[in-house]
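Key idea: predict the complex, not the pieces.
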Amino acid sequence: MLSPERLALPDYEYLAQRHVLTYMEDAVCQLLENREDISQYGIARFFTEYFTSVCQGTHILFREFSFIQATPHNRASFLRAFWRCFRTVGKNGDLLTMKEYHCLLQLLCPDFPLELTQKAARIVLMDDAMDCLMSFSDFLFAFQIQFYYSEFLDSVAAIYQDLLSGKNPNTVIVPTSFSGQHRQRPALGEAGMLEGVEASLFYQCLENLCDRHKYSCPPPALVKEVLSNVQRLTFYGFLVALSKHHGINQALGALPDKGDLMHDPAMDEELERLLVQVPGLVNSATPEASCLPSRIPPRVGSPWRPLHHSRKVDAESDGSTEETDESET
Amino acid sequence: MAALPVPVPSVKMAAVEKRRPAVAPAASFTDNGRPSVSRAQAAAENEEDFLRQVGVTEMLRAALLKVLEARPEEPIAFLAHYFENMGLRSPASGGAGEPPGQLLLQQQRLGRALWHLRLAHHSQRTAFNNNVSVAYECLSAGGRRKRPGLDGRTYSELLKRICRDGEAPEEVVAPLLRKIQCRDHEAVPRGVFRAGMLTCFVLLDFVARAGALFRLLEAPGLAVADRRVGQAVLDTLEGALGAGDHTAVPACYLEAGSRLGPDSLALALDRAATGRRPSSPMSREEFLEKAAALFIAKVKPVG
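Result:
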């Protein structure tokens, strides 16, 4: 229960490690912005609600991007919020474009940068055809990796580029026996023949990176696992492998396993209960909708129609490149 | 956001009232609403003043000190509880309305003392000692009809609450309570209070460990352990505790440790298990009670 190293840290490091001051500062800012509230409810109650919502992860809703990405806990909370708010998109099997996912993100965080959404979409679409449709779960898991490990991935991209252009970011690299079979450093022009970089070399660089990285990075053991399965891989190949890795998802701890993504009976019940109260939304479909445990709710009468737009017809014909998750699980 | 369905507390902020009798500056600020005009330096200064005047600065300083003192694993949850507790007590003590009854006041005092006592684990001795002092002051503060000082009844009540919340079976801790309780109308000195609290928390930890030990011994599926095995463990424990009999020589800790080491325990278990006679089972309660008795035998009674 007691982790002793916590007690041995200097005060300042202990506070920094757990981002205590970040939240205290933010609490004060929020308090200043809501002075009317505190004269009504009292300061202690204001702080109670603030810190409780931080614990519950609801504190990031509708906040500015700089705050949302300020701590690992905030990032995880945002991912969870995004999943919980929009998982019905996945449930309905809707496929959306990058821009549409970006709109969803902006509903939760108005100044969410487009660049980050684009990067996530590149993982799903392997860096081409950026206007393609994506399934919710594909986008979510790619987005998770991109958003949570953003700084780490930037460094990885730089390393990858160095390796690709023949520069060696690490000076101490022993070529493995495998590399003898291929030509060691493919010149840029030969990319057609040998795509990507050699996995073991790549791993050595990443291992170094994880050691000195001050932001969060995925557990090195799992990165190794991802890279030990292949000989060569491309940057986007690596990101796809990371985003589909169960262990990394678990280590990150924000989202459930892919199979359970649409499964949240308590939330479903709550939703149904709320929907019944909204007149005009649930009409003829009510008897159907009340038999809840079915994994794919009836499409007719779904309140999430507005998201489900006219492109749907296209989606069903040319969405064949995507993995539609409903059939898998 | 976490919406609390709590009835709106008194409009006056109790915390403000305590510190500054004049609420006027804060009130005038809220009248302005959010002035978008003055986002300049004046605003920054005003904000600092504002925070100081309504007591936020002081409140956060105190909270931060508590965090550093207790070093909780989850500081944010700790802070949430910290402010919750503060919010619970301020409207009652400073707010308008009729004064709460004597009994309610007593319960509030107990709750507050318990909260302070639990802020830090007893192994963090400095923090724990500070919190014990604060709890003692909470309980011994004078009131309208209460003279300052802590009486035996309150102290016993607090001990009972700690044990009850510690999830130790009543019959296990009852002997301890009998030993360290004071008479209802006795005044409880600070030293006795501190020793009592510490003993009580240590016993709860001890019982929790004993419970874990029993889980290792119990036969899978059945909720009982073999009596011979259980007794052998208890005997070994007793031997180890007896070894350091009230001597302040550090060597006795080493000796106790070696007696509890895997070798000597295994030997005892082995000896116990070789006896082929069938034996009656030993229940968890019995094991805990006997283990706790070993501990309690070492506690010096009060008075």
